[in-house]
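Regression test case RT-17, inverse folding.

Input:
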């Protein structure tokens, strides 16, 4: 065989051999439906598999280094493996990770969070954002004795039957804007669950209030994410939020803020930017310092529904790993480092990211726009920034263009959330933002 031939054969063999990621995915498909435990890791033709992360970088099994703007869907506020968290967890690991006893770590973190959040007189910890939203909804029902909740069309609040209604609404299912449909996500969702969820359009006060009025006697609470990711990473307008809050107060319903993601946007959560005070707040992601977490915080009178010392106990609440000391010490170490100065610095950096991305769009003269607030941004392949879920919903052409853009960014080693969303970490600086906007310009020019 000639030298040229043998090199061709080697190339052909290499091309047919699966990469490490492909091989892992094949194994995964044998033991997990779809090859994963969380659909969000799926990418074509196979997921990326991480080996390690440090700061704003992640190394995958192929040895590639990624600049991480996904940050585990926003949970890694300081990026990966921050020293203060490693030290706190290391200390705790040697002393045990979970007990059928309370720990001082739990009390210390509860004290810290109640002091940090003006609207948190009391707090309880759980294990995920899904669980936090579920507990908040159950608390609203227990407090008011009413069954229904209202939520914004398209907003993601986790997997609880009621919370997920309308999250995947599409043009063929979402119904009239005056009365958005309660669209199920999971097959088999009981019609009774759908009937308990009232869907309102985002930032459309008149329509939302008209819908709420029709259910006034039955509504336990209104769940709102103030900068909802799936709705487009568009900040809720002050007038909209205040109107919902005032309506809830007038009608004996509760206002529940889902700050599972948005707590990262200010020192005390996005709610700090609004006059209205939520009765309950659901927390998660960042406050676990990289470990599974959720929390429900709120007004003392409302949080009393969880009180196991009252008789009868209105809302029994437990969880084998709730408030485990690893999460508690990791969370506290993380939040202490995310002080006002760190919040401000990250938000200034994120302003810069949004403006550089907008400059790239203007330079490339492509139909695209940027939404976002705090330390989050989202790229839409639309000329005009969307106002709500329906206008943010990508057409098939826009979805295809976004897919191409993300593929180009991946080629440049930049990891974004597959909706075109980025969540910054404090491990980033202006060099990372320059890399992001340079890649964006290249991607747009290629379109
Ligand atoms: N609420 C919001 C706003 C979220 O973004 C998420 C997760 N993406 C959740 C709730 C659910 O949190 P978890 O994935 O921890 O269950």
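Golden output:
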């Amino acid at each position: 065989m000639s030298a040229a031939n043998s090199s061709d054969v080697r190339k052909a063999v290499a091309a047919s051999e699966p990469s490490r990621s492909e091989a892992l995915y094949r194994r995964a498909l044998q033991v997990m439906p779809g090859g994963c435990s969380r659909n969000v890791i799926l990418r074509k033709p196979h997921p990326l598999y991480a080996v390690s992360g440090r700061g704003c970088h992640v190394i995958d099994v192929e040895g590639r280094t990624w600049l991480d703007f996904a940050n585990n869907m926003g949970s890694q506020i300081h990026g990966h493996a921050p020293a203060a968290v490693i030290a706190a967890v290391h200390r705790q690991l040697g002393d045990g990770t979970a007990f059928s006893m309370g720990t001082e770590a739990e009390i210390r973190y509860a004290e810290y969070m109640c002091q940090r959040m003006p609207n948190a007189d009391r707090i309880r910890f759980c294990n995920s954002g899904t669980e936090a939203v579920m507990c908040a909804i159950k608390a609203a029902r227990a407090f008011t004795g009413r069954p229904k909740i209202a939520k914004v069309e398209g907003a993601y609040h986790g997997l609880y039957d009621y919370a997920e209604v309308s999250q995947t609404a599409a043009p063929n299912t979402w119904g009239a804007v005056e009365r958005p449909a309660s669209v199920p996500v999971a097959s088999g969702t009981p019609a009774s669950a759908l009937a308990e969820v009232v869907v309102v359009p985002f930032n459309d006060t008149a329509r939302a209030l008209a819908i709420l009025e029709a259910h006034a006697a039955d509504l336990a609470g209104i769940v709102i994410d103030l900068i909802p990711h799936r709705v487009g990473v568009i900040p809720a307008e002050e007038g909209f939020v205040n109107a919902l809050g005032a309506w809830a107060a007038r009608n004996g319903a509760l206002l529940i803020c889902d700050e599972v993601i948005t707590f990262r946007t200010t020192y005390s959560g996005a709610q700090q930017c609004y006059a209205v005070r939520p009765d309950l707040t659901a927390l998660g992601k960042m406050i676990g310092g990289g470990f599974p977490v959720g929390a429900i915080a709120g007004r003392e009178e409302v949080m009393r529904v969880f009180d196991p010392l009252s008789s009868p106990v209105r809302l029994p609440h437990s969880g084998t790993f709730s408030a485990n000391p690893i999460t508690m010490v990791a969370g506290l170490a993380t939040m202490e480092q995310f002080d006002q100065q760190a919040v401000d610095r990250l938000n200034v950096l994120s302003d810069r990211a949004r403006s550089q991305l907008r400059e790239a769009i203007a330079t490339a003269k492509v139909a695209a726009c940027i939404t976002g607030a705090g330390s989050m941004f989202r790229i839409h392949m639309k000329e005009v920034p969307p106002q709500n879920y329906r206008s943010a919903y990508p057409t098939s052409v826009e979805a295809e263009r976004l897919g191409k853009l993300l593929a180009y960014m991946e080629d440049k080693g930049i990891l974004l959330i597959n909706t075109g969303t980025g969540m910054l970490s404090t491990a980033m600086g202006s060099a990372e933002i320059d890399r992001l906007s340079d890649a964006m310009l290249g991607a747009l020019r290629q379109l």
